[in-house]
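re: ur msg from earlier - yeah i can do the zinc ion complex, just paste it... oh wait u already did. ok heres what im feeding in:
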Amino acid sequence: MSSHLAETLRAAVFAARAHAGQTRKGAAAEPYVNHVLEVAEILAAHGAPQAAILAGLLHDTVEDTPITPAELTLAFGAEVAGLVAEATDDKDLPKETRKALQVSQAAKKSDAAKQLKLADKISNLRAIMHSPPRNWDHARRCEYIGWAGRVAAGLKGVNPGLDQLFDATYRDAVAHLAQHD
Ligand code: ZN
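and the outut:
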Protein backbone atom coordinates (compact mmCIF):
# COMPACT_ATOMS: atom_id res chain seq x y z
CA MET A 1 0.00 0.00 0.00
CA SER A 2 2.69 2.48 0.96
CA SER A 3 4.38 1.90 -2.38
CA HIS A 4 1.09 2.83 -4.09
CA LEU A 5 0.95 5.99 -2.00
CA ALA A 6 4.56 6.89 -2.79
CA GLU A 7 3.97 6.25 -6.51
CA THR A 8 0.76 8.31 -6.47
CA LEU A 9 2.51 11.23 -4.79
CA ARG A 10 5.40 10.94 -7.26
CA ALA A 11 2.90 11.28 -10.11
CA ALA A 12 1.26 14.26 -8.35
CA VAL A 13 4.62 16.03 -8.03
CA PHE A 14 5.46 15.18 -11.66
CA ALA A 15 2.13 16.65 -12.82
CA ALA A 16 2.47 19.75 -10.61
CA ARG A 17 5.91 20.48 -12.09
CA ALA A 18 4.78 19.77 -15.66
CA HIS A 19 1.77 22.12 -15.31
CA ALA A 20 3.69 24.77 -13.31
CA GLY A 21 2.45 28.25 -14.20
CA GLN A 22 -0.68 26.96 -16.01
CA THR A 23 -4.13 27.91 -14.78
CA ARG A 24 -7.64 26.62 -15.49
CA LYS A 25 -9.70 28.60 -18.00
CA GLY A 26 -12.29 29.43 -15.31
CA ALA A 27 -12.80 32.81 -13.67
CA ALA A 28 -11.16 31.54 -10.46
CA ALA A 29 -7.93 30.86 -12.44
CA GLU A 30 -7.12 27.86 -10.26
CA PRO A 31 -3.70 26.22 -10.73
CA TYR A 32 -4.08 23.63 -13.50
CA VAL A 33 -2.84 20.86 -11.22
CA ASN A 34 -6.00 21.25 -9.09
CA HIS A 35 -7.93 19.67 -11.98
CA VAL A 36 -5.76 16.57 -12.28
CA LEU A 37 -5.72 16.13 -8.49
CA GLU A 38 -9.53 16.24 -8.54
CA VAL A 39 -9.68 13.65 -11.35
CA ALA A 40 -7.35 11.32 -9.42
CA GLU A 41 -9.35 11.83 -6.20
CA ILE A 42 -12.61 10.94 -7.98
CA LEU A 43 -10.99 7.77 -9.36
CA ALA A 44 -9.48 6.74 -6.00
CA ALA A 45 -12.77 7.37 -4.17
CA HIS A 46 -14.56 5.03 -6.58
CA GLY A 47 -12.11 2.13 -6.46
CA ALA A 48 -10.53 2.64 -9.88
CA PRO A 49 -7.31 0.69 -10.56
CA GLN A 50 -3.98 2.22 -9.50
CA ALA A 51 -2.86 2.67 -13.13
CA ALA A 52 -6.00 4.75 -13.79
CA ILE A 53 -5.33 6.92 -10.72
CA LEU A 54 -1.75 7.56 -11.87
CA ALA A 55 -2.93 8.27 -15.41
CA GLY A 56 -5.57 10.59 -13.91
CA LEU A 57 -2.78 12.70 -12.44
CA LEU A 58 -0.80 12.63 -15.69
CA HIS A 59 -3.62 12.70 -18.27
CA ASP A 60 -3.11 16.25 -19.53
CA THR A 61 0.71 16.33 -19.52
CA VAL A 62 1.21 15.14 -23.11
CA GLU A 63 -1.60 17.34 -24.49
CA ASP A 64 -0.76 20.51 -22.56
CA THR A 65 2.94 20.41 -21.57
CA PRO A 66 6.27 19.50 -23.25
CA ILE A 67 6.20 16.02 -21.60
CA THR A 68 6.43 13.23 -24.21
CA PRO A 69 4.89 9.73 -24.17
CA ALA A 70 8.45 8.31 -23.99
CA GLU A 71 9.18 10.29 -20.83
CA LEU A 72 5.95 9.04 -19.24
CA THR A 73 6.82 5.44 -20.15
CA LEU A 74 10.26 5.82 -18.60
CA ALA A 75 8.91 7.38 -15.39
CA PHE A 76 5.66 5.41 -14.88
CA GLY A 77 5.70 2.41 -17.23
CA ALA A 78 3.91 1.42 -20.43
CA GLU A 79 0.48 0.78 -18.88
CA VAL A 80 0.15 4.27 -17.41
CA ALA A 81 1.63 5.92 -20.52
CA GLY A 82 -0.83 3.91 -22.65
CA LEU A 83 -3.78 5.16 -20.59
CA VAL A 84 -2.58 8.75 -20.96
CA ALA A 85 -2.31 8.17 -24.72
CA GLU A 86 -5.92 6.88 -24.76
CA ALA A 87 -7.03 10.07 -23.00
CA THR A 88 -5.04 12.43 -25.25
CA ASP A 89 -6.61 14.16 -28.25
CA ASP A 90 -4.66 14.61 -31.49
CA LYS A 91 -3.93 18.32 -31.42
CA ASP A 92 -3.19 18.33 -35.16
CA LEU A 93 -6.92 17.84 -35.80
CA PRO A 94 -9.40 20.73 -35.78
CA LYS A 95 -11.25 21.22 -32.51
CA GLU A 96 -14.65 20.15 -33.87
CA THR A 97 -13.13 16.94 -35.26
CA ARG A 98 -11.51 16.16 -31.91
CA LYS A 99 -14.82 16.69 -30.13
CA ALA A 100 -16.65 14.41 -32.57
CA LEU A 101 -13.95 11.75 -32.19
CA GLN A 102 -14.31 11.80 -28.40
CA VAL A 103 -17.99 10.86 -28.86
CA SER A 104 -17.43 8.19 -31.52
CA GLN A 105 -14.33 6.61 -29.89
CA ALA A 106 -15.51 6.57 -26.25
CA ALA A 107 -16.99 3.07 -26.28
CA LYS A 108 -13.80 1.66 -27.87
CA LYS A 109 -11.52 2.74 -25.00
CA SER A 110 -10.14 0.31 -22.41
CA ASP A 111 -12.06 -0.05 -19.14
CA ALA A 112 -9.42 1.92 -17.21
CA ALA A 113 -9.39 4.70 -19.82
CA LYS A 114 -13.20 4.90 -19.72
CA GLN A 115 -13.07 5.48 -15.96
CA LEU A 116 -10.34 8.10 -16.36
CA LYS A 117 -12.24 9.96 -19.07
CA LEU A 118 -15.48 9.85 -17.08
CA ALA A 119 -13.73 11.34 -14.02
CA ASP A 120 -12.24 14.02 -16.29
CA LYS A 121 -15.72 14.94 -17.57
CA ILE A 122 -17.07 15.05 -13.98
CA SER A 123 -14.31 17.49 -13.00
CA ASN A 124 -14.94 19.61 -16.09
CA LEU A 125 -18.72 19.75 -15.49
CA ARG A 126 -18.07 20.91 -11.91
CA ALA A 127 -15.77 23.61 -13.28
CA ILE A 128 -18.44 24.79 -15.76
CA MET A 129 -20.83 25.19 -12.81
CA HIS A 130 -18.53 26.77 -10.25
CA SER A 131 -15.94 28.62 -12.29
CA PRO A 132 -16.94 28.90 -15.97
CA PRO A 133 -14.52 30.58 -18.36
CA ARG A 134 -15.37 34.30 -18.47
CA ASN A 135 -15.86 34.35 -22.22
CA TRP A 136 -18.20 31.33 -22.32
CA ASP A 137 -21.79 32.49 -22.78
CA HIS A 138 -24.85 30.48 -21.74
CA ALA A 139 -25.17 28.76 -25.12
CA ARG A 140 -21.55 27.64 -25.09
CA ARG A 141 -21.87 26.21 -21.58
CA CYS A 142 -25.08 24.38 -22.63
CA GLU A 143 -23.32 23.00 -25.68
CA TYR A 144 -20.38 21.77 -23.57
CA ILE A 145 -22.63 19.99 -21.07
CA GLY A 146 -24.57 18.27 -23.86
CA TRP A 147 -21.36 17.16 -25.55
CA ALA A 148 -19.93 15.83 -22.25
CA GLY A 149 -23.12 13.79 -21.86
CA ARG A 150 -22.72 12.31 -25.35
CA VAL A 151 -19.09 11.34 -24.65
CA ALA A 152 -20.05 9.87 -21.27
CA ALA A 153 -22.72 7.66 -22.86
CA GLY A 154 -19.89 5.65 -24.44
CA LEU A 155 -17.81 5.56 -21.26
CA LYS A 156 -20.39 4.20 -18.83
CA GLY A 157 -20.91 0.56 -17.85
CA VAL A 158 -17.55 -0.15 -16.21
CA ASN A 159 -17.82 1.42 -12.74
CA PRO A 160 -21.40 1.90 -11.45
CA GLY A 161 -20.41 4.35 -8.70
CA LEU A 162 -18.63 6.55 -11.21
CA ASP A 163 -21.58 6.31 -13.63
CA GLN A 164 -23.90 7.50 -10.83
CA LEU A 165 -21.59 10.38 -9.95
CA PHE A 166 -21.47 11.46 -13.59
CA ASP A 167 -25.26 11.33 -13.88
CA ALA A 168 -25.74 13.34 -10.67
CA THR A 169 -23.14 15.91 -11.76
CA TYR A 170 -24.73 16.16 -15.22
CA ARG A 171 -28.18 16.77 -13.68
CA ASP A 172 -26.70 19.41 -11.35
CA ALA A 173 -24.99 21.12 -14.29
CA VAL A 174 -28.19 21.23 -16.35
CA ALA A 175 -30.20 22.54 -13.36
CA HIS A 176 -27.48 25.10 -12.56
CA LEU A 177 -27.51 26.38 -16.12
CA ALA A 178 -31.31 26.67 -16.10
CA GLN A 179 -31.05 28.98 -13.06
CA HIS A 180 -28.11 31.14 -14.20
CA ASP A 181 -27.69 33.00 -17.43
ZN1 ZN B 1 -8.48 16.87 -17.92
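cool cool. The first helix runs from residue 2 to 18. ping me if u need the other ligands too
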